[in-house]
Amino acid sequence: MTRQTAIASGVGGRKSSPLLLTGLLVSLLILWLCLMASITLGAADIALGEVYQALRAFDGSTDHLIIRTVRLPRTITAVLVGAALAVAGALMQGITRNPLADPGILGISSGAALAVVVATFVFGTNSLNIYAWLAFLGAGITAITVYFLGSLGRGGLTPLNLTIAGAALTAFISSVTSGILIISQRTLEEIRFWLAGSLAGRDINLLLQVLPYFCIGLLLAFALGKQITTMSLGEDVAKGLGQETVWVKVMAALSIVLLAGASVAIAGPIGFIGLVIPHIVRILVGLDYRWILPYSAILGAVILVVA
To answer: 247-250 contacts: CB < 8 A, separation 24 or more?
Structure first.
C-alpha cells in the first residue's frame, strides 16, 4: 500500500483515533472555559449564577442587560465566525492543495464585502438579512472568478496561479471598495464600523437570521472530510480511488461560500483565521481532514473568543 493510498483510506494519520478523540474533547472543554470567561469577565465581573439567571429568568437588571445584549451575542458571534472561517480555510487548502488559501487571501471575503458596499451605495441597503444574501452572492462570484483567472496561467490551475489570481483580484476589489467609500460619505458612515470587522454590537435576533447558513456550511464541510483528505493528495489520486471530484469541488465550494458569506455578513471581513488555524491543526493531528475540520472549527472559535 502506498503512502498516499494509506492516508486516503484513513490509516496514514500521525495519531490514533482514541488520542485524537480525547484531544477533541479537551479542546471542547477549553472552548467552554473561554466562553464562560468571555461572558463573565469584563469591566463588570458577573458571577456564573447570575449568567444562568439572565438566561432563565431575565429581569431587566444591569447585569442581565449586559449579558443578554452585549456579552452573549458577542461571544456567540465569535464562536460562529471563528469556526466558519477556520473550516472554510481548511477546505480551501485541501481542495486547492495551496497552503496559502483562505477566504481573505483569495478574495472571497473581499468580494462578499464589496457586494454589501455596492448595495449600500446604490440602494441604501442596511438590513443584515439582505447583507447575508449579498455577501453570499459576492463570495460566490469572487470564488468563480478566482478559479477562472487561476486556470488561465501557464500550467493551468496550480496553487501558485491560484494565489496570484486571488491576490490580484483582492487588490482590485479593495480598490473599488475604497473608491466607493471615498465618493460616498453616506455609505462610509453606514458601513465603516462593519467593514472594520468587529464582533461588538451584534443583536441576538440578527445572529438567528444567519445561524442556518453557518449550520448548513459546517455540516456540509464535516460530511466532506474523507473526500477532502483524498482530494488533498491530488485530483488524479482521487479519481483513481473512484471519487467524483467535480461533485466534491461543488459541495466544498458551496460550503465555503456559505461560511465566508455568513461570516462577512455578521462580522465584516476578518482575516488570517482561515489561513493560520488549519496549519496549526495539521501539525497537531496530521493530514486526515475528518479530524482537521472539527479541530479547526474549535480552535478557530477559541482564538476569536479570546481575541
So the answer is: 248/95, 248/224, 249/95
261 Cβ neighbours under 8 A, 6+ residues apart: 112, 132, 135, 136, 137, 138, 139, 140, 213
The pLDDT tens digits for 108-152 are 888 988 998 998 888 877 776 677 788 888 988 998 898 888 888
Q: Identify whether the C-beta of residue 224 lies closer than 8 Å to the C-beta of residue 243.
A: no
The domain ranges of the chain are: 45-194+201-306
Q: For residue 193, what are the CA distances in angstroms to 33, 124, 139, 219, 296?
A: 29, 16, 20, 30, 27
The domain 45-194+201-306 is placed in CATH, from the list 3.90.550.10, 3.30.70.2190, 1.10.3470.10, 3.20.20.70, at 1.10.3470.10
Q: Report whether 134 contacts 141 (CB < 8 A).
A: no
In one-letter notation, the amino acid at residue 57 is: A
- Mean pLDDT value of segment 283-299: 95
pTM of the model as a whole: 0.86
Residue given cell 493560520 in the structure block: 276
CB 255 within 8 A of CB 95: no
